[in-house]
Amino acid sequence: MAKYNLTEKKVKAPLYRALLSPKLVEELYLQIMQKFVVEKKYRDPDYSAQKLAEELGTNTRYISAVINLRFQDNYSQMVNDFRIRDAMYMLKDRHNADKTMEEIAAAVGFANRQSFYAAFYRRTGTSPREFRESNAQELKGKMEKRRAKIRSARQKKSKAEE
Predict the structure, then answer these.
(1) 44: pLDDT confidence band, cut at 50, 70 and 90?
(2) The whole model's pTM is what?
(3) Which domain holds residue 126?
(4) Contacts for 99-103: CB closer than 8 Å, 24+ residues apart
């Protein structure tokens, strides 16, 4: 007689996923992308799956299922992914060089600096400050190469004119 009654756990998809037709999944996906890519709703720290579902005229289970099927993530992870991508763009942009990390975190929708740093590190493996500094050094190196190339071209042109 077996000491423990061990059976394999059966993994089954939630019932509501079976109710989603591929057409409905695609429609909801496009509507979600509209809200996040075009309207940038992820920048609102209070924007929830519930609010998204209300705006799309559906329920949170369907939203969750579509996000899971299309992004292989849950709602929070998907929102943070959009926020981090936006923050990475802002950190690379020299027009934002004077902004603090708190200002960038708030601009992309994080409620506080700590959650921004944790999500950023989880996604990139580096802190936002390190990311900004490494990109500044990379940009500086590219600018120096470009200036050297321009100087070299000018020197060749002036020698050819002589």
Answers:
(1) very high
(2) 0.75
(3) 82-162
(4) 101/128, 101/129
